[in-house]
């Protein structure tokens, strides 16, 4: 039995509220159970120096957790004092979102997606990627409406979900009690068409078989399909 009472292939309740901030070109509040992440997208008509005059756009991300996102207060991270975990998650979000972008169609501009965890209960990086795509899509819609972008540069939705081996069973969408005790923990990033962007799997005190890995992949495909449906509903696609 899972601590939440969910069956092994059941996601936590998902909600995505859009337009939650006044100034950002795209914004949403994504809730995956008790994990809540505020995602905003900012358009900049410049690109990093290494892309200047290339004709290519860029999508990057920043990630952070508020001090009381967890059950005990954490110290705020200054940008130059970010933990290795934070830096790793930022890079993961950025490259995940870029996997679904036609950077030629985006044009020579940068969109920065900020993901701020308000409340954490496992799966914050996955919720950030899923909500980050919604914020990115809303920002791109503004570019298209203004005529600054001719064709939609977002090829496919990008979403992510966690899966793991808990109590000897493959389970979908780990919350914190499961994540903290899972024998195997994995994060799966996928496009809306089912193509894999990234799979992070690691044994946490127990090894796993090829059959179990395939079982986790099947669960991830189911979970991502549900997340993509929620994304499309949120942006009116």
TrEMBL record:
Annotated GO MF terms: 3'-5'-RNA exonuclease activity; tRNA binding; tRNA nucleotidyltransferase activity
Top-level taxon in the UniProt lineage: Bacteria
Enzyme class: transferase
Keyword Iron-sulfur attached: no
EC number of this enzyme: 2.7.7.56
Leader sequence segment: none
Gene3D superfamilies named among the record's database cross-references: GHMP Kinase, N-terminal domain
Residues annotated as binding phosphate: 85, 123-125
UniProt-listed SUPFAM superfamilies: Ribonuclease PH domain 2-like, Ribosomal protein S5 domain 2-like
Domain spans labelled Exoribonuclease phosphorolytic: 10-139, 157-223
Role summary: Phosphorolytic 3'-5' exoribonuclease that plays an important role in tRNA 3'-end maturation. Removes nucleotide residues following the 3'-CCA terminus of tRNAs; can also add nucleotides to the ends of RNA molecules by using nucleoside diphosphates as substrates, but this may not be physiologically important. Probably plays a role in initiation of 16S rRNA degradation (leading to ribosome degradation) during starvation.
NCBIfam families cross-referenced by the UniProt entry: RNasePH
UniProt record similarity statement: Belongs to the RNase PH family.
Quaternary assembly: Homohexameric ring arranged as a trimer of dimers.
Name of the protein in its database record: Ribonuclease PH
Lineage, opening ranks: Bacteria, Pseudomonadati, Pseudomonadota, Alphaproteobacteria, Rhodobacterales
